[in-house]
Specification:
- By secondary structure, the chain is of the alpha+beta class.
- The chain has a domain of 147 residues: Rod shape-determining protein MreC, domain 1 (Thrombin, subunit H, Beta Barrel).
- The protein has 4 helices and 12 strands.
- The strands form 2 sheets. Strands 1-2-5-4-3-12 form a 6-stranded antiparallel beta barrel.
- The longest helix is centred in the first third of the chain and has 59 residues.
């Protein structure tokens, strides 16, 4: 048996309900738009009656809105944290640059505070290359012949003597350090005044050799240049006496070889050479105390031999 399909009541009822709902919403919209004191009182009464009973429905919405606000706050905090990290990295770089500038400034101030002979002038150069090796201890400066640098001049850092100019180019010059095996420097040990020879041996503590009286030399004694040979000016600080592990006298250098960045080249001028040796006054005849001086410039020009015992005419 085939079943007959009954009449469809759902569709008309659904349409009627939708139409009624639309009419109610339209009426509520129009009522809400009415600008009347009576309508306003009715609206306030409806809100007071409905909203408190709908708090349970607003709780999830409130929680969700709070969660969204919290996530947004965390996102802002994360962004600010990233910005702070980047700024901290930039500040660390600036700090490192400031520390380097402070070190360079302190070294330059140390160079300016070194007390040397007022007759000595200097030119300051920056160390470009350190060519220290097992066979040579030297550095390269960015000053040369265009700055008036001459081979053989003494070179100091902010504390003491570091070496000498061994090669000069137009814009660069090479400095052989006192620790180089080819370095030989006559020095004086203070306060005893013992003379010695500072010899480089490619170590941080060069040797003190040929000491006049080693018994008078003690560790901690101050060592300065002697000026012998006219190579270096006298009185430049070199270091302090130290006793090596082998028992030999060595020198603790005043110059900081571990951080040579700026060096001062001293303009030392050699003593004036005698051009006419015949113009030097020579001794005359032997007197009762010593050689007798000539009585007149004619005899000085004639050059009377002090050993001549001939009688005067």
């Amino acid at each position: 048996m085939s079943r007959t399909k009954g009449p469809d009541f759902a569709t008309p009822v659904r349409r009627i309900l939708i139409a009624v709902m639309v009419l109610l919403l339209a009426a509520l919209f129009l009522f809400w738009r009415i600008d009347s004191p009576r309508a306003e009182r009715m609206r306030v009464a409806m809100i007071d009656a409905i909203v408190p009973r709908m708090e349970w429905a607003l709780v999830p919405v409130t929680r969700v809105s709070e969660m969204v606000a919290g996530f947004q706050s965390y996102a802002r905090l994360h962004q600010q944290n990233q910005e702070l990290r980047r700024e901290l990295q930039r500040m660390s770089a600036w700090k490192e640059a400031a520390v380097q500038l402070e070190q360079e400034n302190s070294k330059l101030l140390a160079l300016n505070n070194v007390r040397i002979d007022p007759a000595l002038t200097s030119v300051t150069g920056m160390v470009m290359v350190d060519s220290g090796s097992a066979f040579r201890q030297s550095v390269l400066l960015n000053v040369g012949s265009r700055d008036g640098v001459i081979e053989g001049w003494a070179v100091m850092d902010g504390l003491g003597l570091a070496g000498r100019i061994a090669g000069v180019g137009r814009s660069t010059s090479r400095v052989v350090l006192l620790t180089d095996p080819s370095s030989r420097l006559p020095v004086v040990v203070q306060p005893t005044g013992e003379r010695a020879l500072l010899t480089g041996d490619n170590t941080a503590l060069p040797l003190l050799e040929f000491i006049e009286s080693s018994d008078n030399v003690r560790p901690g004694d101050r060592v300065v240049t002697s000026g012998d040979g006219g190579v270096f000016p006298a009185g430049l600080l070199v270091g302090q006496v130290a006793q090596g592990s082998d028992g030999r006298m060595r020198l603790l250098m005043a110059a900081d070889y571990g951080r040579l960045e700026f060096l001062r080249v001293l303009r030392s001028h050699p003593a004036e050479a005698v051009a006419d040796s015949a113009a030097v006054v020579r001794g005359g005849q032997a007197g009762p105390i010593g050689p007798q001086l000539p009585d007149s410039p004619v005899e000085a020009a004639r050059g009377t031999d002090p050993l001549d015992t001939g009688t005067l005419q």
